[in-house]
Amino acid sequence: MSQQAYFAEEQSLMRLLESLDATDVYAAVCGVRAPRYANLRKVSGSKLALRQPRPSASPKSFLQPAKERVAVYSTHGPSETESSAGAEPYALVGLRACDLKAIEYLDKVFLEGEPRDPFFEARRRAQILITVDCAEVHETCFCTALGGKPFAEAGFDLNLTPITAGYLIEVGTEKGRALIEKAGSLVREATPRQIAERDRLRRRAVEALEKQTSGLRLPENIQEILLRSEKTGKRLEASAECVECAACTFVCPTCYCFYLFDQPAGGENFERLRTWDSCILGDYSRMAGLPGAKPNPRPRLRSRFINRLLHKYAYSPQQFGQLGCTGCGRCIEACFGKIDIRQVLRELGSDENR
Question: Exposure of 116 by Cβ count < 10 A (0-12 exposed, 13-18 middle, 19+ buried)?
């Protein structure tokens, strides 16, 4: 649908968020050190952080919790899948364009093909997505290097652009249109001057990212380069700095690997839990059996490091039609080994050009 633009003052936007028909409203708010997500329904007096760089935490946990129960059963009966139909409506406010790309990616993983994940699907149906342009870019961001932009163009219900004295609001869906109609006098149609200001601020954000990344671009033959590195045993310098903490995969908005295990749930009942897992860990995909009979398929950390890159930049485009990296830079921020994926990509590109 065509995106019509509206304007809301600072206080009017907060009142609009308070009026949302949602059980919970998770928004990017000012934290002690950096922006964070908080539930506006439960934390009063929070100041929105929509003019600051994106929060360090990714919104993945709202769709794919770090731990959840998916089934219960007993020794005397068949298992019962936990109900996934009762997800309460909730809003996510302050997501960035890179976060929307990540949600689009997870949709392909969990909703396209069979089986569909009923828990993920229920949470997606219950979502209200209110995104915001990057008025400021985080020092680790590099979305433009992967063909992205620091502002969303589709996939949102409402999108906000911080401008003078308030926010320009774009409508992306019928759900968003209903929110604007309900807002009434809290919003008014944007003026041509306000729309021009939005366009100017967007150009400035792109220029800031281009300057920050020094024109970095993903090599077109990245899969060939990575496969050659894996086959020849060439060690990427960054792999020596990896401490196998898995922070990069846990904070990544597109990493979706999970681990299922059962445990007692009282009496004769048991429960099946799903938790996040990581391909960078030494015990990932290790199978049960006699010692040495079914080892980890990638016992060497260097191999696991390269496999992660292959999945992000080569296998994901083949399997899902888009990169498994959005350029949000959270992995750089979280890495205990101080590995900068931008430098890794530069290293791969420079090796190819030698």
Answer: exposed
Beta-strand runs (E) in 265-306: 269-276
Report the amino acid identity of residue 182. K
Q: Are residues 196 and 238 in the same domain?
A: no
Length of the chain: 354
195 and 274 together in one domain: no
150 & 26 share domain: yes
250 vs 75: which has the higher pLDDT: 250
Q: How many domains does the chain have?
A: 2
Q: Output the six-digit token pair for 181.
A: 């109609």
* 46 exposure class (CB count in 10 Å sphere: 0-12, 13-18, 19+): middle
pLDDT, one tens digit per residue, over 55-76 is: 999 999 999 999 999 999 887 7
Cβ-count burial of 11 within 10 angstroms (0-12 exposed, 13-18 middle, 19+ buried)? exposed
State whether 180 and 230 are in the same domain.
no
Please identify, among 188, 213, 238, the residue that sits at the C-terminal boundary of a domain.
Answer: 213
**Cα separation of 129 and 90, whole Å?**
9
Q: What is the pTM of this model?
A: 0.92
- Evaluate whether 30 touches 115 at the Cβ level (below 8 Å): no
